[in-house]
Backbone:
């Protein structure tokens, strides 16, 4: 593990992590008997629950993204019940949004390293 | 009240009820919960067997734990009515594996509760996507009680669906009905 100070802060309490583990393990059990496309729903909902926990701790670098993305996920995930094609289209577009945020963080870190004298 | 208007009122309640998955923080009064749950007593029930019990849960910490083991519970409701199968009653009534009347009785009880909840201005949503062993253990149910369905109950919070124009149209009663022969939608 690096000795470099992290720019990130803790975003998940132990109890919240356990709740997420409970959700994922329960969802695994349900995937045995539920329609296969429910599996995708459980994963995107798990992402929503994780974002909800994180937002309670006001993460310093990602709050704005998480707020916006969680709202979009919570609106569009339930399209699974009303407009499945639109729901699948959303699932296919969602990773690019996360990737853009991950890249933004990486770019920020890179810029920060360049500014720090050796 | 004429029988026609009573039928119209009942149909209106049934037609306008929706699965409500988002609730305000307002607690549900005990009196309202009781009015909801007592309606389950009068649901149609195979051979008057009554092998189910109804557990009302209002404690927010307990609800949070239940939700952890309930992927089908998209938000935390202020109250849950859990329909439980009493395995001692199942033995007493000599129910056999594969007897689906038990499942039907769970459904009729849930439907009664959802309709009366809607008539009372409450929202509700049945949840069956949960880990039975996880929920039973987390809330320390005795071994003879099996959770079958979790009914979320609360004061509804409006959530716009924001569906696009290409969303499929809702099915009509006619779409689902055949007269005399399969495939024939007219009387």
Residues:
């Amino acid at each position: 593990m690096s000795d470099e100070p992290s720019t990130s802060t803790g975003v998940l309490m132990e109890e919240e992590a356990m709740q997420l583990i409970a959700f994922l393990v329960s969802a695994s059990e349900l995937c045995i008997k539920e329609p296969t496309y429910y599996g995708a729903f459980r994963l995107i909902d798990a992402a929503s629950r994780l974002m909800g926990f994180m937002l309670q701790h006001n993460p310093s670098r990602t709050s704005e993204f998480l707020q916006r993305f969680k709202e979009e996920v919570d609106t569009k995930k339930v399209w699974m019940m009303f407009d499945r094609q639109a729901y699948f289209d959303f699932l296919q577009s969602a990773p690019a949004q996360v990737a853009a945020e991950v890249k933004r963080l990486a770019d920020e870190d890179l810029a920060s390293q360049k500014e720090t004298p050796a | 009240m004429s029988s026609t208007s009573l039928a119209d009122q009942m149909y209106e309640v049934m037609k306008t009820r929706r699965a409500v998955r988002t609730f305000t923080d307002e607690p549900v009064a005990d009196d309202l919960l009781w009015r909801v749950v007592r309606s389950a007593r009068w649901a149609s029930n195979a051979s008057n067997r009554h092998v189910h019990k109804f557990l009302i849960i209002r404690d927010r910490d307990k609800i949070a734990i239940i939700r952890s083991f309930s992927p089908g519970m998209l938000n935390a409701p202020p109250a849950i009515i859990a329909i439980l199968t009493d395995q001692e009653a199942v033995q007493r009534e000599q129910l056999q594996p594969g007897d689906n009347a038990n499942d039907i009785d769970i459904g009729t009880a849930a439907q009664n509760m959802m309709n009366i909840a809607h008539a009372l201005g409450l929202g509700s949503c049945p949840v069956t996507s949960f880990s039975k062993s996880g929920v039973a253990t987390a809330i320390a149910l005795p071994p003879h009680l099996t959770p079958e369905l979790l009914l979320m109950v609360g004061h509804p919070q409006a959530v716009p669906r924001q569906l696009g124009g290409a969303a499929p149209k809702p099915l009509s009663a006619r779409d689902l009905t055949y007269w005399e022969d399969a495939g024939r939608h007219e009387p």
In short: Chain A has a mean pLDDT of 91. The interface with chain B takes residues 18-20, 22-23, 25-27, 29-30, 34, 38, 42, 45, 75-76, 78-79, 82-83, 85-86 of chain A (CB under 8 Å). The radius of gyration of chain A is 17 Å.
